[in-house]
């Protein structure tokens, strides 16, 4: 399939596919006419990249998942390197959640103080 069809089927743009290719996440073959050609395996790679990017993974973090698929595994997360990326991402998310909870607690305390100050005297 050509790049336009891969983009359409993968839910992305030809520009994104060229970018993935420049990062080495995707590779194309050139047909006799010089145009990029892709196959169903490439569509699997694009779907994996898009799925992970959609939940907040940086493109570089998708590399082990892509390699796992290229190595013939049924899923991109069935390799140790992919599992390690999951672990690292969970740790990052836990840190973010902790920071957000601390900020929420601080804002909540400031809100309570402000509400108490804004009450009319004698009430």
TrEMBL record:
Name of the protein in its database record: DNA-binding transcriptional MerR regulator
Keywords per UniProt: DNA-binding, Transcription, Transcription regulation
CDD domains listed in its UniProt record: HTH_MerR-like_sg3 (cd01282)
Keyword Acetylation: no
Source organism, top-level taxon: Bacteria
InterPro entries in UniProt: DNA-bd_dom_put_sf (IPR009061), MerR-type_HTH_dom (IPR000551), MerR_fam (IPR047057)
An example Gene Ontology molecular-function term: DNA binding
A Pfam short name: MerR_1
Keyword RNA-binding: no
Listed SUPFAM superfamilies: Putative DNA-binding domain
Domain named HTH merR-type: residues: 1-68
């Amino acid at each position: 399939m050509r790049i336009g069809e891969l983009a359409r089927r993968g839910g992305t743009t030809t520009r994104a596919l060229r970018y993935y290719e420049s990062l080495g996440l995707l590779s194309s073959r050139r047909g006799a006419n010089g145009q990029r050609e892709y196959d169903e395996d490439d569509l699997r790679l694009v779907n994996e990249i898009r799925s992970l990017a959609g939940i907040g993974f940086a493109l570089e973090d998708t590399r082990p998942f892509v390699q796992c698929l290229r190595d013939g595994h049924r899923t991109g997360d069935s390799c140790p390197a992919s599992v390690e990326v999951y672990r690292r991402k969970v740790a990052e998310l836990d840190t973010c959640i902790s920071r957000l909870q601390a900020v929420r607690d601080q804002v909540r305390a400031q809100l309570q103080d402000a509400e108490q100050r804004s009450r009319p005297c004698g009430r």
